[in-house]
Amino acid sequence: MKVRTRLAVFSASAISLVFANSGWAHSGSPAHYTGQQSTGTWRGITATIEVGNPDVVYDTSAGGFVSQRIIAKLSDGTKWIEIGWAEVAWHQTGAPPNPQPEIYTYVQGDGGPGWLYHGTVTPGSTVAVRIESSCSATCTWSAKLWQGSSWLTLRTFSFGAGGQNVEAYNEVDPGNPCKKHAALATSPDTKVQWHPVTVKDSSSAWQYWTTGVSKSATSGPYTSAWQLNSYKFTEERTGAATC
Asked: What is the pLDDT, as a whole number, of residue 3?
């Protein structure tokens, strides 16, 4: 599972607050992953994701979270960049005791802060996110958010080649020790919808992600259901909330 150091920057339009959560790393209860990952390499991935309203409870000692995100990563899992929305127990943005969903980025392997936050988002809305590479002397991967009428780059990380393994996953960590298996959404229904996912091929053309895909349908109480030949799916907690 991923070990994440809790050092973060919150940003809406500009960085306004930096905080650290004692530098502790979370490696307790198993995380759950449902969705899909690539069996080969792509130059980019784009997804439009519904924002859920999870019932994550503020608890800095437990470190639980729900995230819906895309990733580009080295095949050995030592370096990656991700972007999506998340609701995290240790970052209080709303009235206690409930955190709010936020746009976030995360980078593993650059020696930097790990989690960065980029403003809250409204449950029931959708967010469009993209990760893609640009290579000259080195290959830089950019995590982007569709804002207004263009892609806004929120974070970059130079690693590897121009094609990498990619993921479109729901990730849930119930906390350390295990506190609760959070619902992914609580209104208007219990599902999070992933609209058609596209990937960028070696010729830099975008296409629906219908090939080179490995699906993870169930992990713990969470399930995925696919439509439209793999590239559109829903995520839901179908099992018990208790650990």
From this structure: 43
ω into residue 97 within 30 of 0, thus cis? yes
**Element housing 168 (H / E):** strand 165-173
Place of tokens 């996953």: 169
Residue 178's alpha-carbon distances to 49, 59, 62, 119, 175, in angstroms, are 27, 12, 8, 27, 5
Q: From the DSSP assignment, how many helices (H) and strands (E) are in the chain?
A: 0, 19
- Please give the C-alpha separations between residue 243 and each of 66, 174, 186, in angstroms, as whole numbers: 15, 8, 19
In this structure, the strands spanning 115-120 and 4-11 are: parallel
* pLDDT value of residue 29: 64
pTM score over 0.90: no
Distance, in Å, from the CA atom of 28 to the CA atom of 176, rounded to the nearest integer, reads 5
Q: Give the mean pLDDT per block of 10 residues along the chain (243 residues).
A: 37 28 44 95 97 88 91 96 95 72 96 94 96 92 96 97 96 90 91 96 94 93 88 94 89
Measured distance CA(215)–CA(47) in Å, rounded: 16
User: In this structure, which amino acid lies at residue 182?
Assistant: A
Burial of 18 (0-12, 13-18, 19+ CB in 10 A): exposed
User: In angstroms, what CA-CA distances link 235 with 1, 70, 151, 170, 181?
Assistant: 20, 14, 26, 7, 14
